[in-house]
Amino acid sequence: MEFYEDRFAPVSPSGQYLNSSVLSLTIVAVLEFEVPIHDLQTIYLLKNLFIPINQRFSSIMVGEKNGTKKWKKVEVNVKDHVRVPMFPAGKSPEYYDRYLSEYISRISLESLPEHQPLWEVHVLPFPTANAAGNLIFKLHHALGDGYSLIGALLSCLKRAENPALPLTFPARRLSKSHEGGDVKSILKRVPQVSSWVMNTLLDFGWSVLKSSVLKDDVSPIRSGDVGLELLPMDITTMEFDLDHIKQIKTSLKVTLNDVITGVILLGTRLYMEGEEQNSGDSNSTALVLLNTRNVEGYKSISEMVKPKATMPWGNHFSFLHVPLPKLSSPFPGHDSSAKFNPLDFVYASHHIIKRKRNNAAALLTGGLLDHVRKIKGPETTSRYIYNTLSNSSMGITNLIGPLEQMTLSDHPICGLYFAVAGVPQSLEITILSYVGKLRIAIAVEKDFIDLKKFKSCIGSSFETIFKAAVPS
């Protein structure tokens, strides 16, 4: 548990950026249950399991005269944070699927009350196609990033087959460091260092331009409308087998993230081209969220909140600007007359993300934001982040989940997913793994993107890439 010396603690700079008059983001996490949840003791569980996790869950954000904000500890009336909506009884799972999607869209537009801690829980006890009941956590992004908040939720859950054992997570392959200190090895590194410096400067400069003056083309996935964060969204989910993704990964000798990103970007381009001819070659950018921790799994909350923790609580992320490969030529300089190869989207994703992850552009961007905050204040910095989001076409966020099934108070959880609300974009994609499956949540601007058609394009993209990479 996190303890404060007094009833006030400073809000981190990133926490202030994400809760301002310019930008206010919330994370909506959905737990799907195998069994009915009418008897789930929600109030008791929140009071005794959730709130004690971190004192931010029992604090409000207050401003001072100089513009800085602090967390103020308050008494929490748990009932004020729990919503159980009225819903028509006796309807089909398909009806309740639509009701759930519309409900998530509606609560995503509602601001969290500032006079109480910035979270809510919504209990939806009716059966949908995927679950016997759903529990929705709505958490303000200022409380922490996806890693922190999903980690907090996981700390409330137990391993289904043996509650005494900890949850485990997929292993993350870490890149090997270069070894050797002789003259030959040092000389070999000179071109690598030069390339690293050049890539850092180019990516940082392009990031600054994309956050200020360069905007993506208006396209079938980017309306360019002002105030997108205030407009309703449609949301749906789809699921892939992680073993199938691993087969592609092994065949192509890339990472799981490369495969997932390649599938999403190809599917997006297929949708764009289907909606408007030649838009598959438009100038479009995906913002891929980069967790700046060295993540190998979730730490306990007590470990996260320790001073100088290796994987600390809070908001520790940056954005990678990833240009969507063009449908006619996924690689710059590629012969557009050559036969289309869907695997080029995976290879292009691998090349782009590897280059951008392995330089210091994200670090320089973080330094720039801190510099702007000190000179012009957090509101100006928040405006910079807002422009970063609105000038791009889509966002992609990927988190790892446990390998084992979980339970909440002996109620088995059969699925979980999350979405980010309040983002000024027409298309947001979030990804979370759980028990050998990969759950993708797709949130789109309502009445602008055809959600059913977009989902179909992502499915077609996966099938095309799988068949090309793993011949039968």
* End-to-end separation: 52 Å
Largest sheet data: 7 strands, mixed
Question: Average pLDDT across residues?
Answer: 86
Residue share in helix? 25-40%
Give the count of helical stretches.
12
Q: What is the ordering of alpha helices and beta strands?
A: EHEHEEEHEEHEHEHHEHEHHHEEEEEH
Shape: globular
Major sheet: order of its strands? 5-6-7-2-14-13-8
The fraction of residues assigned to DSSP E strands is: 15-25%
User: Which class of secondary structure composition applies to the elements?
Assistant: alpha+beta
Radius of gyration: 22 Å
Uncertain parts: 1-5, 174-188, 293-302, 309-315
Q: How many DSSP-defined strands?
A: 16
Report what the structure shows.
The protein is α+β, with helices and mostly antiparallel strands and 472 residues long. Helices cover 35% and strands 21% of the residues. Strands 5-6-7-2-14-13-8 form a seven-stranded mixed sheet, with helices on both faces. The chain has a six-stranded mixed sheet with strand order 9-16-15-12-10-11, sandwiched between helices. Strand 13 (406-408) and strand 14 form a beta hairpin. It is globular and about 60 Å long. Mean pLDDT is 86; it is low at 1-5, 174-188, 293-302 and 309-315.
